[in-house]
C-alpha cells in the first residue's frame, strides 16, 4: 500500500507560522478529515500537498516521489494525480459545465488542440460519464455560473475525476453550502472513495460532518497536530481544545 | 450505457467546431480574409518594409549618440516646454469655464424647448467631430504659427467634450430646477446657489486636472503642425535631421507627461479624500 | 459635559473652515499667477485675439461653400450646387476608404500583439519580474510617444503613404491596449486559475481556460474603443504624409482650395460620428450578451 508521508512540515508566512512541525503518514484508500478552527493551518497543510504553497521546512513524500521538492513537468504530473476541490468551487463561470469538466483532463494528457478548446471524442464521452455519475449530465451545456452552489461543487468533483486521481484534496468543500447540498456533496465523495478507492483528505470545520464521514480525524491547532485517531476516540475535551469554546 | 448511447443523448456536444461555435469561426475567417485583402490593397511588400527599416538603422544609432550635447540650444527647448504647459493650462481653464454655461444650455433641465437645445447639441457634436489637430491648422491660418493657435485649438476642442459631459451630468440629476453647476460622474447635486459651489469645487477641479493631463499631451502634438511649444521644436529638429536632439526632446516629453500624470493623480486622490 | 463637547466640535469646525478658506485662497492665487505667467510666455493678449478674430471670420467664410438654394441639386459644373462643392467626392471616398482600412488593420494587428504582450506585462501572469519590467516599460514607451512622431519617422524611412501611418498606429495601439489589457488581467479572479494549476495544467492552459474566458468581454470592448480612436488618428496622420484623407486635407489647406477644406472636414466629421455610433452599439451589445 502506498502512503503519503509528511515529515516535520513547517510553513512560515511573513510574520506568522501557519504550520509548525507536522508529522503524519496517510495510507491509501481512506477518508481523512482535518479539523480545527480557522487559522489552525488546515488549508496551508492541504495546499502544501499539491504544492500550491511551498513548504519552508520539512518534506512530503508519496511513495518514491519527493513531492516537496519536485519541479516542472514532474510537479505538474504529481498535481494531475492529486486533484483538489475548493470552498468556492473555482469553476470557470462563463464556460459551460462540460468544458469545465474537460479542463480536468488537461494535466493528464495534453495536446495542442486542447489549447484551442478542441477535445477528443473519447475525452468528451469520459466527461459525460463522470457527470452522469452525479446525475449532472442533463446540465452539461449550461453555463457553470448559473448553477447552484451544490451543483457547482459536484461538477468540480466530476472535474477532479477526469484526472483519474489517487488523492482528492478537499479544501472546505461544504463551507459555502446549505446542509442539504452539503450532505449531497459528502455522499458523492464517500461514493468515489468506496467505489474508486480514491484517498480523500478533507478540511472540515463541522465536527459533526467530520465524525460522520471520515475514517480518521486529524485535529490541528496553531499549526500542530493535537489529535490523530478515529472519530470515536475524539472526546469532548479534545474537541473543546480544537475549537476553543464550542463544539459544533 | 455504451459510448454510442451517450453520444446519442447529447448530440450537440459532438458537433464539429463550426457547428458548435459558428460566430467564433466566422470571426476568425473574416479577420484572416481581411488581412489578406489588406496586404493586397496596401501593396504591402515585405521587401520594402525591410529596406525601410534598414534605412532607419543609422537614424536610430544617431538618436542615441549625443556628441555635441553641450552645444545644443537648451534655451529654445526650455521655452518650448513652458509654452506647451502654458498652452495646456490656458486652454483647460478657458474650456472649463466656458463649458459650464454651454453644457447647461445643452441640457434638458435648463432649456426646455427642443429646437434651440437640438441646435446647441449638434453644434457641440460638430466641434467634437473635428479633430483637435484640424482646429489647430485652421487657427494657424487665422492667427499665424505659434502657441496662440494651440491654445485656441485646445480651448475649442475641449469645450466640445466638456460641454457634453456637463450637459449629461445635468440631465442625470433629479428634476429640481438647476441654477448652479453640476459635475459629471459625481453625485447628483441638488442646487441651492450657495450650498452648491463648495460641494462641486473638488470634483470640478479634479475633472479639470484630468483634462490638463490629456491636454498637455495634445499640446505637444499640436506643436508639430506649427502651434508652438515643444512639439514645434521637435518637428523642426526632425526636419533638420538632428536625430539626437529629437530623441532627447522625445525623452523629455515622456518625462514631462509622466510627471504631470503622477502629480495630477496625487492631487486628485487628495481631493477625493477631503 | 455636553457643553464642552459642543465647544470642541465648534472649534474643530472653525479650524476646518479656516483650512478650507486658506486652500481656496491659495488655489485662486495659484491659478491667477499661472494665468499671468502663461499669457506672458505665449504672448497672448486681448489685442492679438481681437485682431485675429476677423481673420478667422474671413477664413471660415471662405472655406464654407457658396451654396444657392435654387441650384442645390444641379450638376457639378454649376456653382452653388452640392455636386460642385463635392466635385472631388470620388477621390475623397477613395481616400476615406483607405483611411478606414488603415485604422482597421492597425487595430487588428495592434490588438493581437497587445494581447500577446499583455500576459507578460501583468504582475499576476508574468513568468518573472524582469520580463514584467521590460515589457511594461516597452508598452509605456509606445503608448507615451505620440503617434504622429512615429508617423514622421516612418514616412522618412518608408516613404509617403499609408504604410507609415499603419505602423505608427499599430505601435501606439499595442502600447495602449497592452497596458489596458494587463490591468484587466491583474483585476481578474484568481480562482479558476488556481484550479487549473492544481490539476496539473501548464501556464498556457491557465491562461486559455482560467483567465481568457473572464476577461474577453472587457478586452473586446477596449478594442472597439481603440478602433474609434484610431479612425480619428488615421484622418490626421496624413498631415505628415502618412496617407489617408489627412494628406488631402493638408494639401487643400496649404493650397487654399477653400471650399474643399470644408468639404473634407464635413466628410471626416460624418465618418467619425458614424463609427462612434456603430462602435458604441457593438460595445453595448457585447456587454449585454455576457
Short description:
Chain A contains 9 helices and 9 strands. Chain A is α/β, with parallel strands linked by helices and 248 residues long. Classes of the chains: A alpha/beta (248), B mainly alpha (274), C mainly alpha (290).
What does this protein look like?
The complex is a heterotrimer of chains A (248), B (274) and C (290). With 248 residues, chain A is α/β, with parallel strands linked by helices. Chain A contains nine helices and nine strands. In chain A, the strands form two sheets. A six-stranded mixed sheet of chain A has the order 5-6-7-3-8-9, with helices on both faces. In chain A, α6 (149-162) packs parallel to α7 (179-196). The longest helix of chain A has 18 residues, at 179-196. Chain A starts with a strand and ends in a 5-residue tail after the last helix. Chain B starts with a helix and ends with a helix. The model of chain B is unreliable at 175-195 (pLDDT under 50). Chain C is extended, with a radius of gyration of 27 Å. By secondary structure, chain C is mainly α. The mean pLDDT of chain C is 87. Chain C has helices at 2-42, 46-63, 82-85, 89-118, 129-144, 147-158, 162-186, 191-198, 203-236, 245-254, 258-289. The interface between B and C is large, with 57 and 56 residues.
Total count of strands of chain C: 0
Order of helices and strands of chain C: HHHHHHHHHHH
Shape of chain C: extended
Going by helix content, strand content and strand pairing, the class of chain B is mainly alpha
Mean pLDDT of chain C: 87
Oligomer: heterotrimer
Distance between the terminal alpha carbons of chain C, to the nearest Å? 59 Å
Task: Write the SSE topology.
The complex is a heterotrimer of chains A (248), B (274) and C (290).
Chain A: E1 3-12, E2 17-27, E3 31-35, H1 42-49, E4 57-62, H2 72-81, E5 82-85, H3 97-103, H4 112-115, H5 121-133, H6 149-162, E6 167-171, H7 179-196, E7 199-203, H8 207-213, E8 216-221, E9 224-229, H9 236-243
Parallel strand pairs in A: 3-7, 3-8, 5-6, 6-7
Antiparallel strand pairs in A: 1-2, 1-4, 8-9
Helix pairs in contact in A: 3-6, 5-6, 6-7
Chain B: H1 3-9, H2 17-20, H3 22-41, H4 46-64, H5 74-105, H6 114-129, H7 132-143, H8 147-172, H9 193-227, H10 230-239, H11 243-273
Chain C: H1 2-42, H2 46-63, H3 82-85, H4 89-118, H5 129-144, H6 147-158, H7 162-186, H8 191-198, H9 203-236, H10 245-254, H11 258-289
